Amino acid sequence: MAAVLDELGRGAVAVAGHSSGGYVATALAEQRPDLVRSLALISTGPSPDALLPQPFVLRALLAPPLGALLWRRRTDAMIRKGIGATAARRVEIPDELVADLKVTTYGTTREILRRNTAYTVERSVPERLAALVVPLLVIFGAADRRWEPSSAHRYGAVPGARVEMLPGVGHMPMLEAPERTGELLLSFTPSATPET
Questions:
Q1: Which of 67, 84, 91, 175 qualifies as a FRET site for 43, CA 20 to 30 Å off?
Q2: Which of 82, 112, 85, 114 is nearest to 98 (CA)?
Q3: What is the pLDDT of residues 170-187, one digit of tens each?
Q4: 41-52 burial code (b ≥16 CB/10 A, e <16)
Q5: DSSP per residue over 94-152, as a string?
Q6: Which residues belong to any copy of the AB hydrolase-1 domain (predicted)?
Q7: Domain for residue 4, yes or no?
Q8: C-alpha span between 69 and 92 (Å, rounded)
Q9: The domain that contains 36 carries what CATH number?
Q10: Do 144 and 173 meet the contact criterion of CB atoms below 8 Å apart?
Q11: pLDDT at position 169 over 90
Q12: Looking at per-residue confidence, does 60 or 167 come out higher?
């Protein structure tokens, strides 16, 4: 990400990440704070102890040895069911999201999960962010099915952090409450200014 931003020559930008994408965004802020003007984390669990027991369909798709077999045979309907299992309400899942997940291999997905766990075991995300000076918005569904919703309040330890809980929303705020999620992101981004 840093290489792409350097090539674009845009300087510091507003960075947002959903779920494990929040770990990528946080790592970018740690490694290249000059590139991150503000940071928004959506449904990003603060540490492994906040992970809830996962829905059956996700456990079946991810756990060896059955997961590897199911992964190869997964259909659009199975992917939609897996994503939908993390939402608190019925959602329309974009075809583009399904297509992206279809090309992701089982091995890659397992490696991403392993690295995410290692990253958050080493130091929680709030601890990492408390050491940085970057405006922070955290958006969390109050009915998140992947992460204990109350764990979002751990981000309150980050100086100046703004934590927004969305009632009746699960792990996919941008699909379950797109208008409210968009409003929060847009109202936060223009007001974020780099610290000097």
A1: 67
A2: 82
A3: 999 999 999 999 999 999
A4: bbbbbbbeebee
A5: PHHHHHHHHTS-HHHHHHHHHHHHHHHHHS-HHHHHHTS---EEEEEETT-SSB-GGGG
A6: 2-181
A7: no
A8: 27
A9: 3.40.50.1820
A10: no
A11: yes
A12: 167
Structure token pair of residue 145: 């099915």
How many domains are there within the chain?
1
By DSSP bridging, strand 36-42 and strand 136-141 are parallel
For residues 118 and 138, give the distance between their C-alpha atoms in angstroms, rounded to a whole number.
21
Average pLDDT, stretch 64-84?
84
Lateral strand order in the sheet of 36-42? 13-18, 36-42, 136-141, 162-166
- Residue 194 pLDDT > 60, yes or no? no
Examine residue 1 and state whether it is found in any structural domain, yes or no.
no
pLDDT at 191: 54
Closest Cα partner for 131 from 40, 49, 31?
31
CA 190/CA 176 separation, integer angstroms? 24
Residue 16 is assigned to a structural domain of this protein: yes
User: Quick one: average pLDDT of 91-109?
Assistant: 91
